Amino acid sequence: MAMRDSASCIFCRIARGEIPADIVHEAERLIAFRDVSPQAPEHILLIPKEHVPSVDHLTDPDAVLAGELLIAARDIARRLGVSDSGYRLVTNIGPDGGQSVGHLHLHLLAGRSLSWPPG
Ligand code: 5GP
Ligand code: ZN
C-alpha cells in the first residue's frame, strides 16, 4: 500500500501544525491556506490532510475526499467574494504538470483576469 503520510512533506507538516501557514479554512479531512508566493491577489492552496502525492495517486475510495476539496474551494471562493468575478482551480501533476510539492493541492487563484492557455 502506498505511503499515506510523510514526516518530511512540507504540506503534511502544515496540516499537522508543525510549521505556520495562513490558514483560511479547515475541515475534518482537508485544510486550506494562503500560498507563500501568491500568483494572484487571492491564491489559496487546498490540501487533504492525508498525504496523497497527486491526483494520479487518488484511489477510487478517495472520490468523496476529492469532491470535498472541490466543494471547499467553492465555499472559499464565496467567502472571498470572487464567485461572480470568477476564479481558477488548478492542480499540477508530475514534472510536465509543473508540480513542485509532492502533496496533492488545488490552487485557487482569483482577483485578476487570468490568461489562458498556461505556459
Ligand atoms: P505546485 O508547483 O506544486 O503546483 O505548487 C506548490 C505551491 O506551494 C507553490 O505555489 C508554492 O508557492 C507553494 N508553497 C511551497 N512551499 C510553501 C510553504 O511552505 N507554505 C505555503 N503557504 N506555500 C508553499
Ligand atoms: Zn504530505
Structural write-up:
By secondary structure, this protein is α+β, with helices and mostly antiparallel strands. It is 24% helix and 21% strand. The chain has helices at residues 10-15, 63-80, 94-97; strands spanning 23-26, 30-34, 42-48, 87-90, 106-110. A five-stranded antiparallel beta sheet has the order 1-2-3-5-4, covered by helices on one side. A hairpin with a 3-residue loop joins β1 and β2. Zinc ion (ZN) binds at residues 6, 9, 11-12, 51, 103. Guanosine-5'-monophosphate is lined by residues 10, 21, 33-37, 45, 92, 98-101.
Gyration radius from CA atoms, angstroms: 14 Å
Overall geometry comes to globular
The percentage helix is: 10-25%
How far apart lie the N and C ends? Answer: 35 Å
Small molecules bound: guanosine-5'-monophosphate, zinc ion
Strand content: 15-25%
User: What is the spatial order of strands in the main beta sheet?
Assistant: 1-2-3-5-4
By oligomeric state, this entry counts as single chain
List keywords for this structure.
119 residues; alpha+beta; 3 helices; 5 strands; 24% helix; binds guanosine-5'-monophosphate; binds zinc ion
Write a brief structural summary:
The protein has helices at 10-15, 63-80, 94-97, and strands at 23-26, 30-34, 42-48, 87-90, 106-110.
